[in-house]
User: What shape does this take?
Amino acid sequence: MPEGPSIRILEEETRQFSGQKILSAFGSSAIDIERLNGKTIESFKTWGKHFLICFDDFTVKIHLLMFGTYRINERKELTPRLSLVFANGELNFYTCSVKILEGEINLHYNWYEDVMNKSWNPQKAKESLDKIPKQMICDAVLDQNIFSGVGNIIKNEVLYRCYVHPESRVGKIPEDKLKEIIDECSIYSFQFLEWKKNYELKQHWLAHTKKVCLRCDLPLHKKQTGVKKRRSFFCTNCQNLYQ
DNA sequence: AGTCATGTTGACGA
DNA sequence: CTCGTCAACATGAC
Assistant: This one.
């Protein structure tokens, strides 16, 4: 379900409830749900994979993790983790993490870390990468405090597009190539968003879950890489290993 | 039908 | 105390 672009879609779909008063809030979440009753939603925001329901004095943070889902104006059989009922509809979340962030939301997040935020700052990402030269690029790209919103699919596609082997050390990757990866994380996320909206995401995958390199026709490697041990799909012929 | 995965946190042990 | 490992969460695609 959720890499950054999918959460952007969620945010677009929930805009109809922005400014609305919560008539009823319930669910199996451990947070103090009563606190939401009667509150008016100031805005919905996203930071990478975080979906944020902002009120005047606190924010509810939803993280869909791997299996989280939501329904708008309909319900699943399953008890919702959090359900919000408005005069004009309802918003239901299932199997997700729900937490409260107190106070001013801007104090909790650096918006420039989010590759899809208007404040996304590639230069800051470059500075962060320069501090972790020994890490593998496959781990660095998944670091949510550098590339907030980037998930495993985007990681694989970006590194394939940039001809960089996922086990390359950040500090050994040429400057220009590193900048290309940084830019591509944002560019690809927006393409992902458009493709996902059109239900055509998977058909655009070049490397993720693929068995053969479409450039050279050799078999793609599938391997759990880096300290994060997330699966990577890569071509050892076309993707340069900088080490 | 069993396996695996678009993710993260926290517990535990070395 | 820090680091690394792994269980837990729990759904749906193939």
